[in-house]
Amino acid sequence: MSRNISRRSMIKGSVATVTLAAFGANFFDGPKHIVKASAVNPSTIPDETVYSMCRQCVLPACGIKLDVKDGVAVNIEGNPEAPSNNGALCSRGNATLASVYNPYRVKKPLKRTNPKKGIDEDPGWEEISWEEALGTIAEELKRVRADDPRKFVWNNGFARSGSMLEGMEFCEAFGTPNYVEVDGPTCSVHFGCSLLMGNFTGPSYDAGYTKYFIAVGEGSNATCGYAPNTQGFADAVANGMKVVCIDPKCNVEASKGEWIPIRPGTDLAFVLAMQHVIVHELKRFDVEFIKRRTNAPYLVGPDGHYVRDKDTDKPLVWDEIANAAKTFDDKTVADYALNGKFDVNGVECQPGFQIYVSSIVDYTPEWAEEKTTIKADTIRRIAREFVENAQIGSTITINGTVFPYRPVCFEVGRGAVTQFYGGNFHCSSIIVNMLVGALDVPGGGIGALGPNHKCTPVPLALKPDKDGIVAPKVEAVPREFEWPPNRLDAKTFFPYSHDNPHIVFDAILDPEKYYLDYTPEVMLVWGGNAVVRLYQPEKVLEAMQKLKFIFAISYSLDEPTQMADIVLPEAVGLERWSAATRPGMVNTPNGTMKAIFSMAAQQVIDRVYDSRQPDEIFVDLAERVGILYGKGGVNDLLNTGRFAPVPFTGAFQLDLNTKYTAKELANRVLKSARGGEVDIDKMRHEAKLPAQLLPEKANYPSLAWPVGTTRYALYLENLLFKGEDLKTNLERVKAQVPGWEMDNLMEHYQPVVRWMEKKRQIPSEYDMYAINWKTAQYSFGNGGSAENPWLDEVAQLDPHLHVICMNRSTGEERGFKDGDTVWVESFEGGSKFEGRLKLSEAFHHEVVGIAGLFGHTSKQMNPIARKGLHFNKVMANGPGDIDPIGGGFDGSHKVKVYKA
Ligand code: SF4
Questions:
Q1: Which residues are paired to 805 by β-bridges?
Q2: 52, 48, 44, 105: which is closest to 82 by C-alpha?
Q3: Cα–ligand 1 centroid distance for 363 (angstroms)
Q4: Fold for the domain defined by 768-899
Q5: Which of 6, 50, 525, 690 is the most buried (most CB within 10 A)?
């Protein structure tokens, strides 16, 4: 903390800040507790000290320690015994108290009295009882379910994280396929690792062992300010890890190493050129790894598919020594051919590796320099340093176990993957690690984060499919072609996509465009702000106006909540029960995962307002609608473990005919994971968390699968298959993917990744690229971070927030100076905003940078939420503006900048 603000004095000062805000609020009165809180001297002995779990971001993995005095939480610190954060908290975690005691929170259930909906309309809120609110919502849900359950849309965001009911179980019991996550489209960083590494995340660098780290577009998560990841990054740098950051902005990672500015939207060209240098110029790659750990030796026929053994249907390889084709798993293969042309049963074929090598022959550093603006010599140097630092062939012994040792990692973050070719780029970024054998071994890119409901347990991550290749998981398990489509999110057309909320709102406006035979009528809004998070907010608002009934569970009266008919006040962090079992993470202070531990979020204080925890609301609504009990009900579905954070198992399975409280659910989550001896009440006053220590070997998936038992896909045959399948089905039903020409779409479904150009012609006056980035104070923040006065105070220390940033030389060439008011107008989005200009050396010379997502427009939020600019306003939202594989938005839009 700079400016001599100690954490403790910040807490004291901030309580006072909240108190003043309470008196200044013109819509709500502040809670009585606030006055008490300001009078409490935090140095006095608390009545109770509670150990709990931070709920201020999507991660919930940090342990916290709370002091409670006279029923008020007066102090928060990190729990030093929590293996994830070792006692540290990020700014969001430290600002928890200001979130809880925010006078702008929704305090009572509210009913709209003004039927006219719009962001500038006063809804005419009227306070009602919980009974009236839940009864009205249940009636609407029952009505729509009897008519057509698909007409109900569940719309939530990251702030739902850490809840025990996350909604998918409710939707399935209800009968709607329309579970929509609004935060996905700017976060399609899961496809490549799901396809190639069998896991939801990765590759992440290995903080304990990586020596050379290439971070592209916010790799490492230090920029995002996650407490565990930031500590891990700091430790790794202190231990000598070299950081090379490829990014249009000099971010946190770049400031600790070498920053190489890149033109936005050209990261794919950079990684392809790196591969060209490694394969065609240096000719230094991990040949043994490529032969024995990847599908590169599999023979491929003229149709692009594996050539298979006639009897077993297994893919064939060519044995160089025996000069014969053999099945991939034949133990007699003496050496695998990576090059050459062969004739197998009359089919001319070649190893997949040869096709891959040919595909990158033209991607020279000189070619990439034109695309990226990065000098060819620099690209060559980075590729050479990457290979040299990989120490191909070396091993390391950790606690008696010998591992391959490849201390380099090429990691990508949201900024690089949020491109129209994002899914392909993610695959290509993993392939560059593959070339030097740096996957799932010490020092390399790690894909498995251990057992929770989304990250595959280490032993299972690399489990092979029938062809001996890592089986695709999570996002990369393609959806079957469904016709006519049922889902609003168009996953029939985008079978791998992460989340498509932008399409959902487009489909509400125009169902026929997406071949839908129904129009949605009822929507839940919870834990995510579609108006702010998605591009082109007017379109989202227009779609919401079209719906017959919206109910919101909300922390404050933000933009989507303004459109609701009923608003239910949401209990937040310290007012809620929940539980989670987490692994330590690979890029955290401990360096390796080391332990799986369980955490409980305790209800630390009485609820400040008349709010309820969403889990309780959902259980109550499920009971009223008739979908809580019995076979196929919510309890039954929670028992399956398909939706809950941890499956309810054994004696802790839910009884199908019992209504559970949130606390009971949390306790059963803990007991299911840890056994009966762990109890949520016992954990309340214990710093030490129930944990299971893991052997070093369990941290690295490759060791769970010895050589010869599983292979990574370097040749992406399954992508080719899915593209062909999609094309065949679309032709059969005579449909086309909205917003896409078939040929353009199929460019993304190729077995080798190639450079792709945007097809849209853009007038030359739109000569700058608009970028934005996550900010450490707000990224992934749960409800209310934009309204938190403590975070606002910390954020003011960042000169790049709330302004329009431009490279200093570029700005001066155009006659701009610091503090000018300028307009930023986009071509694709067709929208514009004005703001104050900040000239800075920290940006690529073709870039206009706008931090985070600010500039809320709801008049009933804390006024500090209106500060800053809403970047997404100038982005485009059409189906052709997304990555058809990962589903993410394209984030490299052209804008023009001119003085106001
Ligand atoms: S990273 Fe920050 S907000 Fe997230 S759980 Fe940790 S302390 Fe809380």
A1: 838, 849
A2: 52
A3: 41
A4: Barwin-like endoglucanases (2.40.40)
A5: 525
